[in-house]
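Complex record, four chains
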Amino acid sequence: MTAAVPRFDAVIHPPPRLQICGLLAAVDTMEFSAVRDAVAVSDSVLSKHVKQLEEAGYVAVRKATIASRQRTSLALTKTGRAAFSAHVAELRRIVEAPLDAPQGGAGTGR
Amino acid sequence: MTAAVPRFDAVIHPPPRLQICGLLAAVDTMEFSAVRDAVAVSDSVLSKHVKQLEEAGYVAVRKATIASRQRTSLALTKTGRAAFSAHVAELRRIVEAPLDAPQGGAGTGR
DNA sequence: CGTCACTGTTTCCAACATGGAAAGCAACGA
DNA sequence: TCGTTGCTTTCCATGTTGGAAACAGTGACG
C-alpha cells in the first residue's frame, strides 16, 4: 500500500511545488488558473514552477483551445505521482508522524 | 493534544531543519554531534541551521562542560514543538488526498 | 486587415539562502 | 605552552526565488 520507497525529492519539496503536487495528486487534472489561484502565486511564478516539474517529468502540461479559449491543464504523470508518494513517505519518516499520503495509482484509480 | 493549527513555517521547512526538528521532536534533548551525524551535515552547516532555529526561538542550545568535555545539547523549546506540529499539520493538509485518504487516523494522537 | 483581449511564457534582475573550507575560540589535558 | 576536542563564524561562490514587464499564440471584432 503505502509502499513508496521514502525518497526526498528536492524538485518537489519547495513550498510552491509541494502545493502544486498536492493539488494535482488529488485530481486527474486541474487548470493552470485554478492552480495559480490555489497556490496564490503569479502567473510567471507558477509557470516557472510548472516548468520545473515538467522538466522533471512529474507534470504533464496539456494545452487546448476550447470554446475560443486557451486552456492549459496540468496533471501529475505516473512518474510524478510516484515521486510525490516517495517524497511524502520521506517526510513522514522525517517527522516520524503519520502524514496522510495519497496513494500513487490509487488516487485516480488509474 | 496534537491539535496544532496548520501553519507553514519557512524556518522549519528546509530539509536540514526539518530533519533537525524531526529528530528533536522525538526526544527531550540530543547532542550536537548526534544531530550532525543523523542529518549528515558538516559542523558549520549544522551550527548555522541550529542558529536559525535558535533565533526563531525553536531550539534551545545548552552548553555544558562535563567530564572535561564540551557538550552541546539541543532541544526543541515549547514554542519549537508547537511550530513543528503546526508545520507538520500544514504539510498534511497540503498532501492530503480527499479522494483516497483512508481515514484521518493521524488525528487521534494515537 | 489591423487591433484587442485573454493566457500563459520568458527575460531581466535584485535579494536571499545554502554549503564547503578554513580560520577562530574556549576549555582542558599533557 | 602546545595540541586536541567541539563548536562558531567568516569568506565566498553558487543556486533559487519571486516580481515586473515585455513577448507570443489564438481567436474575436469592427
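Note: Residues 78-95 of chain A form the longest helix (18 residues).
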